[in-house]
Design brief:
It is a single chain. By secondary structure, this protein is of the alpha/beta class. The strands form seven sheets. The chain has a seven-stranded mixed sheet with strand order 16-18-19-20-21-23-22, with helices on both faces. Strand 5 and strand 6 form a beta hairpin. The termini are far apart.
Length: 523
C-alpha cells in the first residue's frame, strides 16, 4: 500500500481500539477490529506502515510459528504440535525424539520455531556432506558432539538448554544407531531427528533403537490450523472451548468446506490464504506429487515395486475414502501381494493409511486384517486435484454431496487421524457386520476407554441411519453413537426399528478434531 494511503487509513481509524499505531495490514486489507484487543494481537501477522513487525505476531497468548514470506507479506501458521514439543522439552526423562511425517508437511520449519525455546540450537542436515561427516569421525558421541560444535563454531555449555536437530537422518544410518548413546551418555542434550524419507531405513533393514527414542507425527494442517492461517483464530478458540455459538455455525461450515477443498499442505494453504484462488494451487499439488514420485526409487525394494508404487500414486487417488481390493487394483494386472506391499510402503511414508474393519461392538477394537481395508490419503487438497473434482465444491452446497460422499469420508478420516495422534494411537477402524450376506457398514468406530463408539458421516433424518441402527441393535453395543454432518450440534434420543434406544451426538464437521473431548463430556 502506498504511504499516502497508509497515512489516510491511519488517520481515518485513529481511534481503532484506542491504539492507532497498531493497525494490522493483512493480504491487502486492513483488519482494524482485530488488530489490538485488550492488550493482545488477534492476528497471525501485523503489517504496519510498509514494514513487518514480528513482535506483533501474537495470537491469544501464543506465538504463530509457521512463517512463509510471499511477496513481502509473511503468513504464519500456528502448528499445534509445538505444544507437545514444549512438553517433551520440559520432561526430565525425555528421550531423543523422532519427528515423522510426509514430505513437505513442515517438519523442519516446526523444529526451527521450537528451537527458539532454547539457549543454543545446533542444526544438522545430513543431506549435506559437511554435516554428515561428523558421524564418520568416531563412534564416541562425546567426540562427535565436540566436532559438531567446533564445525558450527558453538561453545557447548551443559548449563544451557541445548537442542540438536538432526534433519534428513536417513542419509546417515550410523546416526540412527547412535541416538541411543546420545540418550545414555549425554542426557542433558535435547535431540530431535527427522527426515523426509525415513522409510528408506526399512529398505536398509535399519531401525531406530528400541526403547531409546520416542516419536511424534506431523500431519498436514488441521482445520484449527487452517482457521489460524486464515485469520479466524477467535473461531478456532470457540471450537477448542467447545463453545461455538449457533450464529457462527454456517460460517464455520463454509470455512470447513474451503478447508476440505484446499487441504492442509502448508505451501498450498499459504498460497490460498494469500490469493484465495484455488486455480493457483495446481502447480503446488503437481509439484508435491512429482516429489513423491521421484522418491520412489529410494525406498522401493526392486524395479517392479517402483512401477507398482507409481501406478498407485497415479490411479490410487480415485479410491480415496473407499473400501478397496488389492488384486488388479486400479485396472492393473498387479497381484494382490504386489499391491498390498506397495501400499504398505506408501503407508510407511505417511502418504496414506489402510484402515481395516472391526466386526465386534465390544472393546478392544481388533481389526479383521483378512477383510478389505479403506484407503485414506494424506491430504484432501491433493486428492481433489488428482481426481479433478475441485469444481464440485462450487456446485454443491453440502460437503456430503461432493464426489458421492467420498470427499467427506476422506476429510473426516484426515481430521480423526490427528485426534488419534493426540491419544497415542496408530490405527483407525470402521465396522462391518460379521454375518454372511450382511451389508451393514459404519464409516468409523472410535474406542473411548472401554467403549466402542460408532460414527456415521451422513445427513438426513435419524430413520435413515440403517447401518448405525444395526450396530446399536447388537446386544453388547453401548448407548451412544455419533453422526458427523453439516447440521448444528445436538444430542437426540433415537429408537431403532427393533426398539433399542440410544443417544445420538450430532457433530458438525468443524468439531471432528474435538471428538475425544466431546465424548469425555458425554460418556
Amino acid at each position: 500500500m502506498p504511504p499516502k494511503q497508509q497515512k489516510a487509513a491511519l488517520e481515518q481509524h485513529s481511534s481503532c481500539a484506542g491504539v492507532s499505531q497498531f493497525v494490522a495490514y493483512a493480504l491487502g486489507k486492513f483488519y482494524f477490529d482485530f488488530a489490538y484487543v485488550l492488550g493482545k494481537f488477534y492476528f497471525g501477522f501485523a503489517y504496519v506502515l510498509g514494514k513487518f513487525y514480528f513482535d506483533f505476531a501474537y495470537v491469544l497468548g501464543k506465538s504463530c510459528i509457521f512463517a512463509i514470506q510471499i511477496n513481502d507479506i509473511t503468513i504464519m501458521i500456528h502448528r499445534l504440535l509445538i505444544e507437545d514439543l514444549t512438553e517433551w522439552g520440559k520432561r526430565k526423562n525425555r528421550k531423543p525424539l523422532v519427528l515423522r511425517g510426509a514430505r513437505q508437511v513442515g517438519k523442519t520449519t516446526l523444529i526451527d520455531e521450537f528451537s527458539k525455546q532454547y539457549d543454543c540450537y545446533i542444526k544438522l542436515n545430513l543431506e549435506q556432506s559437511s554435516d554428515a561427516k561428523a558421524f564418520g569421525i568416531s563412534d564416541n558421541v562425546a567426540e562427535i558432539f565436540q566436532y559438531i560444535c567446533l564445525q558450527k563454531k558453538i561453545v557447548a555449555d551443559k548449563s544451557k538448554r541445548t537442542l540438536l536437530f538432526i534433519d534428513e537422518i536417513q542419509n546417515e544410518p550410523k546416526a540412527v544407531g547412535l541416538l541411543r548413546y546420545f540418550y545414555e551418555e549425554m542426557p542433558w542434550l535435547h535431540i530431535v531427528a527427522a527426515g523426509s524419507r525415513l522409510q528408506t531405513l526399512i529398505k536398509q533393514r535399519i531401525s531406530f533403537p528400541v526403547g531409546r527414542v520416542e516419536y511424534m507425527s506431523l500431519r498436514p494442517c488441521s482445520f484449527l490450523e487452517f482457521l489460524n492461517a486464515t485469520a479466524n483464530e477467535p473461531l478456532a478458540e470457540m471450537i477448542r472451548q467447545l463453545n461455538v455459538s449457533p450464529i457462527y455455525h454456517d460460517m464455520l461450515i463454509a470455512l470447513f468446506n474451503k478447508y476440505t477443498l484446499v487441504g492442509g499442505m502448508p505451501e498450498a494453504l499459504v498460497e490460498y490464504t494469500t490469493n484465495e484462488d484455488v486455480s493457483r494451487l495446481s502447480p503446488i499439488y503437481r509439484s508435491l506429487l512429482n516429489g513423491y514420485n521421484e522418491d520412489v526409487e529410494k525406498y522401493a525394494k526392486n524395479a517392479n515395486q517402483v512401477n507398482v508404487i507409481r501406478h498407485l500414486l497415479t490411479h490410487g487417488w480415485t479410491e480415496a475414502g473407499q473400501t478397496i481390493t488389492f488384486n488388479r487394483f486400479g485396472g492393473s494386472n498387479y497381484t494382490s501381494k504386489e499391491v498390498h506391499e506397495a501400499l504398505e510402503v506408501l503407508q510407511n511414508a505417511f502418504l496414506l493409511s489402510l484402515d481395516y474393519p472391526v466386526t465386534t461392538v465390544k472393546a478392544p477394537a481388533i481389526p479383521a486384517l483378512t477383510r478389505q481395508p479403506k484407503l485414506i490419503w494424506l491430504d484432501s487438497g491433493i486428492m481433489n486435484f488428482s481426481v479433478d473434482i475441485q469444481t464440485e465444491y462450487l456446485q454443491n452446497s453440502s460437503l456430503l454431496d461432493v464426489w458421492k460422499g467420498h470427499a467427506a469420508e476422506q476429510i473426516v478420516a484426515q481430521e480423526l487421524r490427528i485426534v488419534l495422534d493426540r491419544n497415542y494411537r496408530n490405527e483407525q477402524y470402521f465396522w462391518v457386520r460379521d454375518r454372511k450376506g450382511a451389508t451393514a457398514e459404519v464409516d468409523f468406530v472410535w474406542q473411548h476407554n472401554a467403549t466402542i463408539v460408532p460414527i456415521e458421516v451422513k445427513s438426513g433424518t435419524n430413520a435413515h441411519l440403517r447401518s448405525l441402527h444395526s450396530f446399536m441393535d447388537t446386544t453388547e453395543a453401548t448407548g451412544i453413537a455419533v453422526r458427523i454432518w453439516p447440521g448444528k450440534y445436538s444430542i437426540d434420543e433415537v429408537t431403532t426399528p427393533n426398539g433399542k434406544t440410544f443417544r445420538l451426538i450430532n457433530l458438525p464437521f468443524y468439531y471432528i478434531g474435538m471428538l475425544d473431548r466431546i465424548l469425555d463430556k458425554n460418556l
